[in-house]
Design brief:
383 residues; alpha+beta; five-stranded mixed beta sheet; three-stranded mixed beta sheet; 15 helices; 16 strands; globular
């Protein structure tokens, strides 16, 4: 007797993803609970991360997100997926650091004379851990501490960075975050600080399986290729990881978009109705980056207008009924926040009312007064 897998449509998958992220009907969740549902919030631009979190819940402003980071410490700002800065729930940092530490090493992007040997990498990571234990240091202070402990070679200015050069040791700064020996602390004036989060990473295989389950809970059904794209890693590696996780009965197959995909075992319930409503999502929003297939989330003209060469995140996006339907921009002057939205097709009267409410919520999260204009957005992709 052959078993039959469930068939899931794009509409049903999209509706469940949005509901689980508070994008259908925001509830009263804490900032850490919201981030855990994403399951990570891109924070290269912290103000965008604050908006991502605030728009998914009620009664939360950017100040609440900052309090969760720097006072309550229920959130942590560190290096996450793709080696980029993310917000993560502090309670899940052992899982994240265990999983990120177990990821395969990618191609070394640095020139041969700038690279570090495995022994040098180990020396720098040990130096970072020792320097940050019980301390909050600016990057310059940390650099001095690393060079003092690891040796003068660690301070060689060999890494091209913006207008100048960075010291050699900084090429493994993201790796220190992945190993759990470094995270960001509150800014000291205009300077970023680093500290040690003080967590013990979970065992690698256990943590990787947990990360697969969290990703599939948020974005399933998904394929190993989708997961690999999310982490910017080889598809073959992801396929082996999924196969091992499936062999333990932790995930199960479904049919999605005409092919095989995966969900968490037993997690096969999906909404019957498609998404309705208007939402504004900021730069680098997790939903825009991780939802697949991207062509369905960005249909037609949206694929050209709302993506940067197929790359999600570089434009804030207007969602209408669950798909990208325009772009938007906000500019702040004191408490006034000018919100300009460019729909790709005319909005109905009801959708315009929803858009006004959504723009007002942007103002509330950012602790200002939003003024909505519907018109062309002339600002380019985020640099």
């Amino acid at each position: 007797m052959t078993s039959r897998t469930a068939t899931v449509t794009w509409s049903a998958a999209n509706a469940r993803r949005m509901a689980r992220q508070g994008l259908t009907a925001p509830g009263r969740l804490s900032p850490a609970e919201v981030v855990g549902a994403l399951p990570a919030a891109h924070a290269q631009v912290l103000s965008a991360a604050e908006l991502s979190v605030g728009l998914r819940t009620t009664g939360v402003t950017r100040a609440d997100v900052r309090d969760a980071l720097w006072k309550d410490r229920t959130l942590v700002k560190t290096f996450g997926p793709r080696g980029t800065v993310h917000l993560l729930p502090m309670t899940e940092l052992p899982l994240w650091t265990g999983a990120l530490s177990a990821l395969p090493a990618g191609r070394n992007p640095f020139a041969k004379d700038a690279r570090m040997t495995p022994e040098q990498v180990g020396a720098v990571l040990a130096a970072i851990e020792e320097a940050l234990t019980g301390a909050e240091l600016t990057v310059d202070e940390l650099s001095e501490a690393v060079v003092e402990r690891a040796g003068a070679w660690a301070g060689d200015l060999v890494m091209p960075a913006f207008q100048g050069m960075w010291p050699r040791w900084r090429q493994v700064m993201h790796l220190a975050g992945h190993r759990g020996v470094l995270c960001f602390g509150p800014d000291r004036g205009r300077k970023v600080t680093c500290t040690r989060p003080g967590v013990v990473p979970l065992d690698g295989p256990e943590a990787l399986a947990g990360l697969v389950r969290r990703y599939l809970y948020a974005y399933g059904p998904a394929t190993p290729a989708h997961f690999a794209k999310w982490l910017a890693l080889p598809v073959g590696w992801a396929a082996e990881l999924f196969a091992g996780t499936a062999a333990r009965g932790e995930i199960e197959p479904v049919t999605y978009e005409g092919g095989p995909a995966w969900v968490v075992a037993g997690d096969t319930g999906f909404p019957a109705e498609p998404v309705r409503g208007v939402r504004l999502l900021p730069y680098f929003d997790a939903f825009l980056i991780a939802s697949q297939p991207r062509e369905r989330l960005f249909p037609g003209a949206a694929y050209t207008r709302a993506l940067a060469g197929g790359q999600a995140g570089n434009f804030p996006v207007l969602l209408v009924d669950g798909t990208a339907a325009g772009v938007w921009h906000q500019r702040r002057s004191g408490r006034r926040i000018a919100v300009t939205v460019e729909p790709l097709a005319p909005l109905t009267a009801g959708q315009l009312r929803e858009l006004e409410a959504e723009a007002a919520r942007v103002g509330e999260v950012l602790e200002g007064n939003a003024e909505l204009t519907v018109g062309a957005v002339t600002v380019g992709a985020h640099a």
